[in-house]
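Appendix B, Record 12. Input sequence as logged:
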Amino acid sequence: GCWYRCTAAGATVVIERKPFALWSRDAAGNQLTELEPGGLAFRFSPAGKVLGVDFRHHLGRHEVLYGFGERFDRFNEHGNVLTLWGMDDWTGLTIGLMNQSYKPVPLFHSSAGYSVFVNSTYRLRADIGRKRSEQYRLTQQGPVFDYYFWTGTPEHALESYTRLTGKPLLPPKWAFEPWIGRTGRGWANTPAHDPVAEEERVVQRFAALDIPQSAIYAEGGSADSPALVPGSAAQGLKVLSWFYCCIPEAVQRALMPDT
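Logged structural output:
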């Protein structure tokens, strides 16, 4: 068959036309990625419009896949099914769909020496060797098939990824240090049911054990408590939380009565 070869930055990409196949090799000649016939499929509407894209790739028995943005499960996603769809996931942390998160990113790294970025904002389902242990499968809604493959270290891939999508601002140094944190229910679920007292106890315990931390995540009613901030500030801690920025309907009606 007719084939093409391209080499750049130490990696080689080979494309074969008939039958179509695409694979990449690193500088040492090791094959990293491969797209074989049947590894890519499209779903069409009756009118011929592309509705979805399905991509399948070999997964080694001991291969580690990690990344995908914010996760609440584990480092190695081998054996998991992930839903990459940004949404308010307050129920998914403890109940409901446990495979989703607030801030998913369709970028992942493989211990085999490559990284993949799916450049699409459509909903994506990633079966990482769950149904078939020797394969990972990325099923994406929408008519976009735009994949980036990088060989080399994750640091190299992230440099290329941020050149493509934009580089974030560098947070302050304390943001990279360990934080203390629980959910609002976690802070309140103590014998005294006093989240501020529990937070102060934990801060003092960490200090007594000489465990470094730079911030405390005080979710819940204690987050804006005047009693919490001074004590935490004395320990050199930042107080962090989030607030549900809405006005309940009853309050709205009280503020804006019908006339």
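Residues 6 and 94 are 47 Å apart (CA to CA).
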